[in-house]
């Protein structure tokens, strides 16, 4: 099963939960990120964990970039870590 790396690209988090450049590896459980952000990105993570591709601009990729539902205060990138 692939793994998805989540990286905080930008952060102006009101609660201080996320700091720019922190990252998490997702295999099968939720990492320690806020629930609002997790609920927003989970459908894309599920697609990537199951081998799918996502729309990324005008192309299909094994990655995504999304924002926090709290006025886009946090930007997060998710990408598949290829297994060697």
UniProtKB/TrEMBL annotation:
It comes from Alkaliphilus peptidifermentans DSM 18978. NCBIfam families: TIGR04076 family protein. This is TIGR04076 family protein. InterPro entries: CHP04076.
